[in-house]
Description:
This protein has 428 residues and is mostly helical. It has 20 helices and no strands. Helix content is 76%, strand content 0%. It is a multi-pass membrane protein.
Amino acid sequence: MTVTIALVVLVAMLVFGLPVALAMGVSGAVGLYLFGGWPILRGILKTTPLSTANDYEIITIPMFLLMAEFVIISGVANDLFRAATVWVGRLRGGVAMATALAGAGFGAISGSSTAAAATLASTSIPAMLKEGYEPKLACGVVAISGTLAMLIPPSIALILYGIIADIPIGALLVGGVIPGIIVTLTIILTIAYLVWRDPESAPAGQSYSFGQKLASLKRVWLVLVLFFAVTGTIYSGIATPTEASGIGAFCAMLIAAWERQLTPANALRALRSAAQTTCMVLFIIMGAHIFGYFFTLTRVTNDLTMWVGGLETSRWVILAVILLGYLILGFFMDQIAILILTVPVVLPLVLQLGYDPIWFGVLVVVTAEVGMVTPPLGMNVFVVARYTGRPLGELFRGVAPHVWAHLIVIALLAAFPAITLWLPSTMQ
């Protein structure tokens, strides 16, 4: 009965639009009070804020967010798009393909999906519309390309999953590299199919000489330096993910200074934006911890695991149901909130079924990408709509083919776990 009341309070608060952090914290507090009275509730409320912020790996979140802010200030993302356009822009739909490549590059130096979508919207959409691209195609490519930042390291979503699941963050980040490449190629192949089916939707681009292509790479070396400063140091074992996040933020600051964009006003804006987002994430984690303590004390997770373990059905069917649940939740909730709310409940079940937690984490994040572009929430679509002024219905139709392609990738990753679990012994 206590669990039912707490869940009803949680759902009611979410329906009425309260922040997820507040909804989880209040509903968890109500459940704890009904379960053990004021003494238990007071003890948990006294210790939860400190235990939430007192995790060494939490430092990776503000550092990677600050790195993303410095990257945006430096204008490196614009250089990525221009270089990709020079190399593949000659093809029909080449500028759209360049947008996907730029999205992957920006994802490799930023963990924020919405920041990636906003940056691409301000750079690539005007270029595509100027060349005669169909607005639906152009906006759909930008919205889906922005989601790559959720998967390609450094990924805030994978970091949060690692913190919640208590598994090596370095292994998670490196495990997202090959799936990130696969998703990028899938977006490019989807664009190729769309322009083949409707040649009028995208023109053939301008061709460039080999010298011009080489010249375009002069501005990309900064991105490669930043990528190897983060992912390279993690993979080689030189630095832990926490240390790599600090290295990445420092290198991004140097890049902004190199580009003469590190003015006092820009630096203050970057620090303020990173601090605000970090506070939001920590608030969500704190609310999830309160709710998680309630679930632990009432043994909801254990009872659910035992019940599912007793079902006479294939574990792959159970996995399919879990992923379907993540897809449905993505229609209505923020992806970070979904991870924090569901992982403590779902992961013990996944482990009992014999699945690898690193593989499952990458699979969940790829699934969560779909929620970034599907109605009614579709955060990336709303970001693109705000920058372009295009109707939401048009944008959701433009991203629909990419959603179907993403579902194929999810099935591929589920069927072949080795795509994710290719880690060296130092990362296991």
